[in-house]
Inverse folding.
């Protein structure tokens, strides 16, 4: 097997990319190792292509409202409805109350006018009876006294009827006014109950909307993550294909194929192995282990024998 086929098989079977970056000192040594490996094969092995990274997409950051914020929002939405309804009810109550007050005032005036007329009529009747008794010489007679008593009784009865009628009317107005207040409070209580039901419904709607937005944001961000991952895979594939194409080109130009003897190939592999062990031994074991398995340079540049020697050491 020539060097080109050897390296091509390693690349196809051991394409492993690192998701972490070595420490600064280790990275410098790793770069030196890669330069050394490249120098060993001179221009025979092309550099691994490193095309520009695909773009990262801005995630949608949905600031989901809390339950308390949702409740406050729902209350604010319905507050205007309650205020408007209460205002309309109070306005109607005031209108009817003013009508009742006007009726009370009118009733009071009628009562006073009727009472004044009754007093005037009684005075006129008393005067007439007195004059008539004087003319007839009956001023101190029992007939005059009886007539006066009858007039007084009639006045008292008429006044009592007038007062009773007035009191009944005032009571009727007061009862209507009291009923009007109870009707207003009942209407407000009923509306408040209906608003409480609407508030619960609106809170549930806003919570459902929040859950929908959370799911939408998660799905959108996941779709971006998938797109970025697919583009990274495409980049890796394109870089590998470019690398293999360059190897094929150099093989066709006979820059690699058959140009190294088995002895020279063994010497280069040993030199690379020595440099690799020097690098890894200079690092803490866990760091060395992670770097060995994460970076494809080790699998691509070491012979099977040397690679698996280190593989069993760090596995």
């Amino acid at each position: 097997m020539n060097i080109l086929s050897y390296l091509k098989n390693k690349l196809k079977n051991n394409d492993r990319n690192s998701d972490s970056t070595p420490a600064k000192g280790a990275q410098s040594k790793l770069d030196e190792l890669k330069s050394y490996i490249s120098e060993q094969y001179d221009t025979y092995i092309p550099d691994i292509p490193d095309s520009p990274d695909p773009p990262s997409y801005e995630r949608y950051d949905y600031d989901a409202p809390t339950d308390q914020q949702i409740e406050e929002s729902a209350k604010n939405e319905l507050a205007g409805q309650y205020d408007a309804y209460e205002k309309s009810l109070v306005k109607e109550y005031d209108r009817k109350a003013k009508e009742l007050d006007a009726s009370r005032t009118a009733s009071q005036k009628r009562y006073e006018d009727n009472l004044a007329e009754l007093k005037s009529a009684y005075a006129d009747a008393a005067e007439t009876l007195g004059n008539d008794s004087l003319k007839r010489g009956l001023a101190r007679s029992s007939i005059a006294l009886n007539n006066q008593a009858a007039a007084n009784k009639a006045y008292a009865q008429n006044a009592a009827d007038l007062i009773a009628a007035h009191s009944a009317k005032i009571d009727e107005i007061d009862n209507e006014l009291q009923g009007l207040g109870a009707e207003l409070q009942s209407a407000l209580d009923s509306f408040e109950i209906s608003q409480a039901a609407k508030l619960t419904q609106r809170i549930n709607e806003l919570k459902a909307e929040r859950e929908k937005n959370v799911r939408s944001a998660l799905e959108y961000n996941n779709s971006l993550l998938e797109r970025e991952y697919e583009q990274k895979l495409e980049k890796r594939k394109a870089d590998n294909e470019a690398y293999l194409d360059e190897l094929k080109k150099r093989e066709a130009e006979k820059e690699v194929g058959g140009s190294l003897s088995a002895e020279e190939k063994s010497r280069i592999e040993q030199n690379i192995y020595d440099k690799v062990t020097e690098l890894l031994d200079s690092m803490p074991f866990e760091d060395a282990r992670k770097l060995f398995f994460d970076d494809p340079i080790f699998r691509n540049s070491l012979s099977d024998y040397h690679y698996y020697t280190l593989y069993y050491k760090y596995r």
